[in-house]
Amino acid sequence: MRLRPLALLSAAALLATTTACVSTPDETRPQPRPSVSKEEVTPIETPDDAPKVSIVDSSPGGAKDTDPLWQGLAEAAEKKTEAYLKVYVHTGNPEVPDSGETTVTADSPDSVSVTVDAKNVDDGASPFLLIHGTFEVEEIGNSAYTLKTVDDEDIPELDPKGPDDEKRCTADDAQDRIGLAADDLAEDPGRREEFRQQWGGSPRVWWGIQMTAISLGEEGGVAGDYLTEACGEFLQ
Predict the structure, then answer these.
(1) pLDDT tens digit sequence for 54-91
(2) Taking the model in full, what pTM does it have?
(3) Which pLDDT tens digit goes with each residue over 174-186?
(4) Residue 114, beta-bridge partner list
(5) Quick one: three-class SS letters along the chain?
(6) Is the pLDDT of residue 13 over 60?
(7) Exposed, middle or buried, 96 (CB in 10 Å: 0-12/13-18/19+)?
(8) What is the pLDDT of residue 31?
(9) Helix 174-187 to helix 192-199 angle, to the nearest 10 degrees?
């Protein structure tokens, strides 16, 4: 069933879920936790020949301590090892040239910049750009890296298994399920890898969950309707 336009995520972006309270004249009581079935997760088996630094993710941008892309690039540059990337980056400048190099920077403040061969950047999910391939990594500044392509091939075994963005966004329980994931991640950021394996198969929704959780954790509220943006294409 297709959701009502914007239902997914105006409510989920406000996230009146597990930690919210409802005031009454006599008391303040927690709202009930939405009832959804448990997420089914297929374990990811890493091939023996995969690069030690392999990042299959959606980057939330921003500070290094919350961005797996930046962390992985820093590790690869420091250890002088190759990095396999299959990373979606939400950017305010999704134009990709036909040839030469391009620089990809998330539109979150203080994000890392990645200069890479344009042929290794896919704009099919614009404004999300997909950087994919195996690269040599060089740090050229405190928050800037250049990548030299070693191999164009994807490693599908590393992809999280699960519903894609359209199925996530149009599921009957999408509003409760996605909103709950964002709230739970905000409550316990240490569970990020668990959530990546659950939600990484829908990279745009996974980005929205992370952005909402980060905003909740830092601001106590949501600075943008990230989840509606992630699902907007499917809510027409």
Answers:
(1) 999 999 999 999 999 999 999 999 999 999 999 999 99
(2) 0.85
(3) 988 999 999 999 9
(4) 104, 145
(5) CCCCCCHHHHHHHHCCCCCCEEECCCCEEECCCCCCCCCCCCCCCCCCCCCCEEEEEEECCCCHHHCHHHHHHHHHHHHCCCEEEEEEEECCCCCCCCCCEEEEECCCCCCCEEEEEHHHEEEEECCEEEEEEEEEEEEEECCEEEEEEEECCCCHHHCCCCCCHHHHHHCCCHHHHHHHHHHHHHHCHHHHHHHHHHHCCCHHHHHHHHHHHHHHHHHCCCCCCHHHHHHHHHCC
(6) no
(7) middle
(8) 58
(9) 160
User: For residue 96, what are its two tokens?
Assistant: 């990709």
AA identity, residue 56:
V
Q: Which residue has the tokens 């994919």?
A: 132
- Looking at residue 151, its amino acid is D
The label of the residue with tokens 């396999």 reads 84
Q: Cα angle at 99 between 96 and 102, to 5 degrees?
A: 45
- Residue 37 one-letter amino acid: S
